[in-house]
Design brief:
The protein has 400 residues and is an alpha/beta fold. Helix content is 18%, strand content 30%. The strands form eight sheets. It has a six-stranded mixed β-sheet with strand order 8-5-7-6-10-9, with no helix packed on it. The chain is elongated. Bound molecules: ligand LQZAQKY5 and molybdate ion.
Length: 400
């Protein structure tokens, strides 16, 4: 059994980035991988803009009690065309162009309006803040500035691209990940299972996980526990960029995935990782160099392995920096017992603690319990042979 860090390194070395790009409309680009730098088609803000509601003035004339005559108004979408001279002010609103001559916005909380009959006047109050409250032209970005590639586009990126006045972007094609569920006991959701059958859940959870990571998951028909059925399954996923099998990875008489994969031409890289759940994980290369990840059948094992290994592999397929999921420091809300010899990724819930992030390891850790996995929002990581730990002790967590 190899350690989890080595398993990830070996999996990533099996993966090469896919090629081929396409145009994606902005509204469909979130989660896609930007393939070429996206260049701004305009400067933002395109003019010096007010950051506050108030009065645009010349800052040199501002002191407590100073008076200004209001000569016009600049609003967002409609600027004041004239110039602000000494002793003058232009009523201005957030986002509006700052008029010529002005270099400071007196916020309206610091201005007292004086109605003296001869036109509107204001007087600066006794306490004035120091800010100019002006956003310079191009302070956010300038025409031609680039959002660099590659990167997976976040909703924040989409806002930026829209502000850049782009309607579509060049993105990498989605890496195709085939999901092959295996087992005589499985039926698809919605079918009527026989008396000894269950519903295939892993494939659906993986599908969701992969889609959220920008991959194109493909569910292959469930393969049965025969060499013929598994051979047909491997043949049917020959066009995938990465093949994931589910189940049949362990040592039972009907665990044929390893053998069938070998007959399909798999060059095995490793089998078995020193982790819990997920021990029977396997990885290798199929003909054509396509990576194969064989996930254990137990539903929680499959999902935990997918979080730890499959998602980084999808990043590598997309040509992005790929790394183990980020671990955050937390403190146990309740003690946990001593760990066994495998690194344990215990299903857990995050809670606000007295000093930072707290984590509660859930009571039932059997790797078949999807209800417990659904309740979890993190994996608490227990090192091999870690002694029992008390409430308050430091532990690392992987948010799900
Ligand atoms: N004697 C030993 N038995 C087992 C060992 C071992 O070392 N020695 N390892 C155990 C561990 S750890 C795991 S994990 C499981 C993994 O076994 P397989 O990968 O061969 O998985 P299966 O036997 O096919 O199935 C296990 C379990 O998961 C259910 N399953 C399978 N596929 C799906 C699916 N798509 N959706 C939902 N559930 C699925 C299957 O019905 C079984 O209940 O082996 C232990 N045994
Ligand atoms: O290690 Mo297996 O993956 O727990 O149940």
């Amino acid at each position: 059994m190899i350690p989890t860090a080595e398993a990830l390194t070996r999996i990533l070395s099996l993966v090469s980035p896919v090629t081929g790009t396409e145009r994606a409309p902005l509204l469909e680009a979130a989660g896609r991988v930007l393939a070429a730098p996206a260049r701004a088609r305009r400067t933002q803000p395109p003019f010096a803009a007010s950051a506050m509601d108030g009065y645009a003035i010349r800052g040199e004339g501002l002191r407590p009690g100073a008076e200004f005559r209001v000569i016009g108004e600049s609003q967002a979408g409609l600027r004041f065309a004239g110039e602000v001279g000494p002793g003058q002010a232009v009523r201005i609103f957030t986002g509006a162009p700052v008029p010529q001559g002005a270099d400071r916005v007196l916020i309206q909380e610091d201005a007292e309006r004086l109605e003296d009959g001869g036109g509107e006047r204001i007087r600066a109050r006794e306490t004035l803040d120091a800010g100019s409250h002006i956003r310079p032209a191009g302070g956010d970005f300038r025409e031609g500035d680039a959002l660099p590639a590659p990167r997976r586009l976040t909703p924040r990126d989409i806002s930026l691209l829209a502000a850049m006045n782009l309607t579509e972007v060049e993105v990498l094609r989605r890496p195709v990940v085939a999901i092959v569920a295996t087992g005589d006991e499985l039926v698809e959701p919605g079918e009527t299972p026989g008396p000894d059958q269950i519903v295939s859940s892993n494939s659906y959870g993986l599908h969701a996980l992969l889609a959220a990571r920008g991959a194109a998951p493909r569910l292959a028909p469930i393969a049965r526990d025969t060499m013929e059925s598994l051979a047909a399954a491997f043949a049917s996923v020959a066009d995938a960029d990465l093949v994931v099998t589910l189940g049949g990875a362990s040592v039972g008489d009907h665990d044929l995935v390893g053998r069938a994969a070998a007959e399909a031409g798999l060059s095995l890289d490793f089998w078995k990782v020193n982790m819990r759940p997920g021990k029977p994980l396997m990885a290798g290369r199929l003909p054509g160099g396509r990576p194969l990840l064989g996930l254990p059948g137990n539903p929680v094992s499959a999902m935990v392995c997918a979080q730890l290994f499959l998602l980084p592999a999808v990043d590598a397929l997309a040509g992005l920096p790929a790394a183990a999921p980020r671990r955050l420091p937390a403190r146990l809300v309740e003690g946990v017992g001593a760990n066994g010899p495998r690194e344990h990724f215990a299903r857990a819930r995050l809670e606000p603690g007295p000093d930072g992030l707290g984590v509660r390891v859930l009571g039932r850790q059997d790797s078949s319990l999807l209800s417990v996995l659904a309740e979890a929002d993190a994996l608490a990581v227990l090192a091999p042979n870690a002694p029992a730990m008390a409430a308050g002790e430091a532990i690392e967590v992987i948010p799900l």
